[in-house]
Each structure stands twice: as C-alpha cells, then as structure tokens.
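Raw record, unedited: Arginine--pyruvate transaminase AruH
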Amino acid sequence: MDLDENLPEVALMREEYRQRRDLACASLNHYPGIRAIQPVGGMFVMADVLQIGLSAQHFAEHLLVGYCLSVLVGEAFGASAMAHIRSGWWWISGNSRNS
C-alpha cells in the first residue's frame, strides 16, 4: 500500500482534524482580545493575546491557576511570537460543537 493512495480512512481523519482545528480557532476568537492564527498543518494553534492587557506569561499563568489549562508562552519560539500563546487542539472532538 502506498502512502499517497486515496484511502477513505485518511480522508475521514483529515476532515476530523480540520473540524477540530476550526473549532479551536473559532473558540479562541470568541474571546475579545484573542486572535487565533489558523494553522495550515500541525496540531497546535498560536493565538495573539496582546489586546487582553496581560503579557503572554501572565495570561498563561492565569489559565493554569484559574482553569488548570496549560499553554506554552510564545516567547519560547523567539521574538516574533511574543504576546502569543500556543495551545494544542488534538483533544478537541469535531463533534463537540453540538455539546
């Protein structure tokens, strides 16, 4: 079997992950001052949090302490990612929008 074959399972998985990505970005964009940067690939989303009035570090600490939600501060990726956070979205179910 070639990896470039048109397998229905791959198409289903691709659609599931597209739905998860879209839901994660839409959820982040729902909050004033947070702007998700929709990834083309991968399982993480970067979000610009500059407009919320906290540094990315303070915002990440707030999420961890207040909501037990761990995100990575963007500064770990260099100066261009300052005021950003990175969050994984692989755990989101594409069907959870109906929950």
